Amino acid sequence: MSAVPTHAEIIGHLQKEVSPSRLNLFLQCRLKFWFRYIAGLIKPKTAALHVGSAVHSVLKAWNKARWKSHPLALKELYDEFSKVWAEDPVQWEPGEEDDEKKTGWRLVETYIRESKIPESLKPDAVEVSVEADLHQHGLPKLIGILDLVQSGTIVDYKTSSQTPNAEKVAHTNEVQTSSYAVLYREATGKREQGIELHHLVKLKNPKLVITTLEPMSEQQQTRLFHLMEAYVDGLDRRDFIPSPGLQCMSCEFFNECRQWS
């Protein structure tokens, strides 16, 4: 039986490699980062997260089928959706599950209809794990998974309850998009054609909003590297303090944070 790693060992591993999601969480709230990645606290999945995960899984299956030149019919997609929906149990409120499942499937239908991606257009890559060794910059290894690369463009899927503002989502997702650009360039030796954020918006009449971004600039890469430096320095200092704000109301670690000292 292997020994349970100590907090110091976990932090040491986290300093050696970082993903966009880890980096984003550390920058948003360092105490939340501690609870999730170091203390290893596990919380039940929320309804919104479950819907997003199910939609993401079905779009992954759809893209992989296109990549294999065997596109899936809508009935096959629904069967895949029902399978992934049932795999991960959620603590539902009475009557909530049926409504959320209908919402998730409507998002999938909306994407297939509105994305206008030809079934015959083969993706460059689907759900591919990539890493970039940045030790020459004094930084940890960067790791990540690219949802979709289509004709040299990096595509990332999002679900949202509100229509996104292009300028704001470009800013709030810059850590992720710049990370993906670094990973893409490391893997291919080429500059990406651009980056697209595909937001599926959970309205009464769902819609797809595509935000098109230019390839990562040198300034954006520099910003990303400075943020990674802050991540490493913060872990060195054991700087795990909270970041109180409106976002706390929906945080799964709210009660634990109230006990922080």
Please name the defining characteristics of this protein.
Lambda Exonuclease, Chain A, 49% helix, 6-stranded mixed sheet, globular, alpha/beta, 6 strands, 261 residues, 10 helices
Can you put this structure into words, describing what you see?
By secondary structure, the protein is an alpha/beta fold. It has one domain (7-258): Lambda Exonuclease, Chain A (Alpha-Beta Complex). The protein is 49% helix and 16% strand. The protein is built from ten helices and six strands. It has helices spanning 7-16, 20-28, 30-38, 47-67, 74-87, 96-114, 166-172, 174-188, 218-236, 254-258, and strands at 17-18, 125-132, 141-150, 153-160, 194-201, 207-213. Strands 1, 2, 3, 4, 5 and 6 form a six-stranded mixed sheet that branches. Strand 2 (125-132) and strand 3 form a beta hairpin. The longest helix is centred in the first third of the chain and has 21 residues, at 47-67. The protein is globular and about 50 Å long. It starts with 6 loop residues before the first helix and ends with a helix.
